[in-house]
Amino acid sequence: MEQNARIGPPDQPLFWRDGRMPYVELRVVQDGRKVCYAPHSHVEWSMGAIINGESTFAYRDDAYRVNAGTLVLMNPHWVHACNPIDNQPWAYTMLYVDKDWLTQLRYEAGLLEAPLWQDIMTATIKDEKWYVGYCDMAACLLDSTRTLLEKQSILVEFLTNIMTLFSGQLNLSRETPAPLQKVADYLRAQACEDVSLDSLCNLAGYSPGHLIRSFKKQFGLTPHAYLLNCRVQQGQRALKRGESIADTAVDVGFSDQSHFQRTFKKLLAATPNQYRRSLVHHDKDTASSN
């Protein structure tokens, strides 16, 4: 995939953002042998391409082995993890798209009856046409010589086309029991606070053991792991705004910067500094790996 962005060391992640397109972010990893993710989720809709080698792809209750030429798709809040196989080389790009922006795009294209998010049930695509289209779109975003209009146009065109592919799918998303949804909503709202298991049990009306088992079965994470995931998500947003790592760590509920950095890297396979550095000049097209 030809590009003009500065990539840096192949084992370091590259993050591309453009402040004029705040609804999209791109991540590139050229050598993923040391890139290991714990189970986690994103608030955005995500789509990735394996551009070299192969890896595992755990997505909710399913496990896949994906290789070069495969696209992987992840709904907001669905737990997943991609990891190397026996230290074999693999490379990938990952696109993160704001859920509300994508919902509006689908609605305006006539693909949704109402401007409300609908999960996509497809997890992987092995089709040369879609893979090449994705790579062309990613290369355009990474190319600093391409105009803003060109980048916006190719992104909208690709996403509209692939969302059309998924239109008409039956929505088979799990129905979340009301008590568990209340707990998840509470954890997201109180992510920066010191939350007790007792308070969650009182909220749901469950015993501690039953709550932990039921919550993990529904969301793929224990309540504590879900809380940490929410804190990292809030940390990402703060770093995007240019907040310092030290202030962000405290603001999102971690006891210290070291704990925040360890958790951030465990879930996102990148340090907060690697993630933040691409926004040094967030008013323009940026790409950084340092």
TrEMBL record:
Keyword field: Activator, DNA-binding, Transcription, Transcription regulation
Pfam family, one: HTH_18
Domain HTH araC/xylS-type: 181-278
Name of the protein in question: AraC family transcriptional regulator
InterPro entries with a match to the protein in the record: AraC-bd, AraC_XylS_family_regulators, Homeodomain-like_sf, HTH-like, HTH_AraC, HTH_AraC-typ_CS, Tscrpt_reg_AraC-type_HTH
UniProt-listed PROSITE patterns: HTH_ARAC_FAMILY_1, HTH_ARAC_FAMILY_2
Organism annotation: Salinivibrio siamensis
Domain of life: Bacteria
Record field: transmembrane: none
